[in-house]
Amino acid sequence: MRATGLSNAKVSYVKNVVAFCIEHTITDKKLHAMSNDDIIALLTQIKGVGKWTVEMLLMFALGREDVFSIDDYGVQSAMISMYKLQNLDKKQLRERLLKISAKWSPYRTYGCLYCWHLKDNAPVVEKT
């Protein structure tokens, strides 16, 4: 794994995931039967696996359509831009983002995808 460019810490985290999945007999079938919150609670017990990592698993590996990754910088910055949310403190911003994203339910994953697309493909403004 080191030869592929992973740091020692990342190699350790991958090994932690493997050991945890073996120890708890985690299977795709088992994960598909669980709620998003239950999966987050289960997998964030693994050292090196945080909520954001599990949210990405929910979206991209399990195909869950109603995941809002509030702590994702790309999602936050796109929403700040789209909804003109400048000058809010962290708590206010978080509350506004959650309120806005509630309107996207049950398809919040697609809202996140749109935010990432907007962030990565911001329109270029030509100076004249």
Molecular structure report:
The chain has helices at residues 8-23, 28-32, 36-43, 51-61, 73-83, 90-102, 108-120. With 128 residues, the protein is an all-alpha fold. α3 (36-43) crosses α4 (51-61). The longest helix is centred in the N-terminal third of the chain and has 16 residues, at 8-23. It is globular, with a radius of gyration of 18 Å. The relative contact order is 0.10. The mean pLDDT is 94.
What keyword list fits this structure?
128 residues; 60% helix; Endonuclease III, domain 1; 7 helices; single chain
Shape: globular
Annotation field: number of helices: 7
CATH architecture of the largest domain: Orthogonal Bundle
Task: Report the radius of gyration as a whole number of Å.
Answer: 18 Å
**Record field, number of beta strands:** 0
Q: How many separate domains?
A: 2
Largest sheet: none
What oligomeric assembly is this protein in? single chain
Low-confidence stretches: none
Q: Could you say what the CATH topology of the largest domain is called?
A: Endonuclease III, domain 1
Residues in helices, as a percent range: 55-70%
Topology:
Elements: H1 8-23, H2 28-32, H3 36-43, H4 51-61, H5 73-83, H6 90-102, H7 108-120
Helix pairs in contact: 3-4, 5-7
Brief summary of the model shown:
The chain folds into two domains: 2-61, Hypothetical protein, domain 2 (Endonuclease III, domain 1), CATH 1.10.340.30; 73-120, no CATH class.
